[in-house]
Amino acid sequence: MDHCANCQFELSGSFCANCGQSVKSRRGPIWQVIGEFTEEVFAPNSKFFSSLVDLVFKPGKLSRKFIDGKRVSILPPVRMYLVISLLFFIVFEIPTVDVSEKNVYIGDALLGKEEPAKGQATLSFFSTVNSDDPISRWVNDSFADKKELMLKLEPQVTVDRIFYNLENALPNAVVLFLPLFALLMKLIYFFKRVLYFDHLIFSLHVQSWLMLMAMIIYGLAQINIQWAWLSALVPIYLAKAQKEVYRQTYWLVIPKTLAIFFIYILLLTLVGVAAMLAAIMMFGD
Fold this sequence. Notes:
Blueprint: H1 30-42, H2 47-57, H3 61-67, H4 77-91, E1 102-106, E2 109-110, E3 121-125, H5 134-142, H6 144-152, H7 155-188, H8 196-223, H9 233-246, H10 250-281
Parallel strand pairs: 1-3
Antiparallel strand pairs: 1-2
Helix pairs in contact: 3-8, 4-8, 7-8, 7-10, 9-10
């Protein structure tokens, strides 16, 4: 009788009864490995396909299944998030800024010009009118060692490097956003006595759906801008997902949805600011 390659337990099926490892070997010719992966992911009865359908068309269904312990039949939330976020950051590349067409400020440093050009738009990062306020002083002090290098290099190179750093920092910042969003859900549903872990699962699925819908809406809007109306589905989906997961009536869910929606935007803005700050701090390292 064959034995599991991982724990040497006797095999009696497609998976080891002791450790759960698949009997199939992941080694072999590359075409065989690719074929097995494609079959698992894109087969009509695959976890990926069925989980994707549930994520898009059945708000809260995946989270409810996971919380109820029905986990074998669905794609793990973290894996789904990683796949969708990878596609998201490939589709949405961060465009750089043409310094010749804009007055670009990093803190109090104007890149590429001694004086701002009249008639050109101004793009400011961590620059304020009042340079004496505590936040402005902290920003300028933080950028002090970067300022000399920024002004020494060709301005377009400086901006391109900062935006390259931003592309690297933003995915990490979005990952850190998830536990914050889960904490928000914990506070809003404090009296439901739901585990923080369950809120985190809900956050993973909601964020996965939002990124997926952003890609779908973006693609459709390239054909016809009127497809942008699909963004109105965001609060509707969020409300229905909460009702499914937290088992509350719409009278309770709707006001919570409005609060979550606005706080979500605020948190996402803070994450974007933190990512940009990290990108500037990494400049020259």
